[in-house]
């Protein structure tokens, strides 16, 4: 019996076209098999001679930066080691830092570093910040609870909480705002509620007084 094989026509070649606007693509030299489609963008044209354009996608710059929580950890670590040179690059030039023990905020990197220089001179290296909890979900806003320890033992009246606002400036994530609220040494208890009630009553009677605060 005469067997007739069906004719096989070669498919048109698939052209790989890298546009001039895209940088030349190179496979990783370490392990080409690990290449992921997440790092590539494919586009197939609808012309009679279809081509596939391949271009590396833009990697989000945020992924290459340290997280806000990491910046805050490095901030406390630098203070503990009294290494203000490492702390300096974490603070924005126009940062505002509020320590609620003081009547006025510290404005600008220079004033903030001067404050921590005085703090370190006062307490030495025996007194250390210990982070109890730290928020990690948002790199633009980080909250922390902490306490102080003296040679590894809790220091009295040293619990505190802090809030930090961060921004990316010149390719680096930096602290642009900070606020510290520290446990008071004197704890008036319920008398605070009495004082608040009295102030609230006074403001209801004389609302214009609020402008004097």
Describe this protein with a few key phrases.
single chain; 213 residues; alpha+beta; seven-stranded mixed β-sheet; 4 helices; 10 strands
Task: Outline the structure in words.
This protein is of the alpha+beta class and 213 residues long. The chain has four helices and ten strands. It has helices at residues 68-80, 84-88, 109-123, 191-205, and strands at residues 15-17, 40-44, 51-56, 91-99, 106-107, 127-134, 141-150, 153-154, 160-169, 172-182. Strands 4, 5, 6, 7, 8, 9 and 10 form a seven-stranded mixed beta sheet that branches. A hairpin with a 6-residue loop joins strand 2 and strand 3 (51-56).
Question: How many helical stretches?
Answer: 4
Please state the CA-atom Rg, rounded to the nearest Å. 30 Å
Number of strands: 10
Overall pLDDT score: 80
Shape: globular
Strand percentage = 25-35%
Amino- and carboxy-terminal Cα gap: 108 Å
Spans of at least 5 consecutive residues with low confidence: 14-21, 29-42, 55-59
Note the main sheet: 7 strands, mixed
One letter per element, helices H and strands E, the order comes to: EEEHHEEHEEEEEH
Secondary-structure-based class equals alpha+beta
Percent helix among the residues?
10-25%
């Amino acid at each position: 019996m005469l067997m007739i094989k069906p004719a096989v026509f070669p498919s048109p070649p698939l052209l790989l076209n890298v546009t001039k606007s895209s940088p030349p693509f190179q496979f990783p030299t370490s392990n080409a098999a690990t290449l992921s489609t997440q790092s590539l963008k494919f586009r197939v044209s609808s012309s009679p001679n279809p081509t596939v354009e391949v271009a590396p996608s833009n990697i989000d710059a945020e992924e290459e930066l340290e997280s806000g929580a990491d910046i805050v950890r490095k901030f406390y670590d630098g203070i503990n080691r009294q290494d203000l040179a490492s702390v300096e690059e974490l603070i924005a030039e126009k940062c505002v830092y509020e320590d609620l023990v003081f009547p006025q905020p510290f404005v600008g990197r220079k004033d903030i570093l001067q404050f921590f220089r005085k703090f370190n001179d006062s307490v030495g290296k025996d007194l250390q910040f210990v982070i109890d909890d730290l928020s990690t979900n948002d790199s633009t806003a980080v909250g922390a609870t902490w306490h102080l320890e003296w040679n590894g033992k809790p220091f009295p009246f040293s619990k505190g909480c802090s809030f930090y606002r961060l921004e990316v400036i010149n390719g680096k994530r930096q602290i642009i705002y900070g606020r510290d609220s520290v446990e008071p040494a004197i704890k008036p208890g319920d008398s605070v509620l009495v004082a608040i009630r009295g102030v609230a009553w006074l403001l209801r009677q004389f609302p214009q007084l609020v402008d004097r605060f």
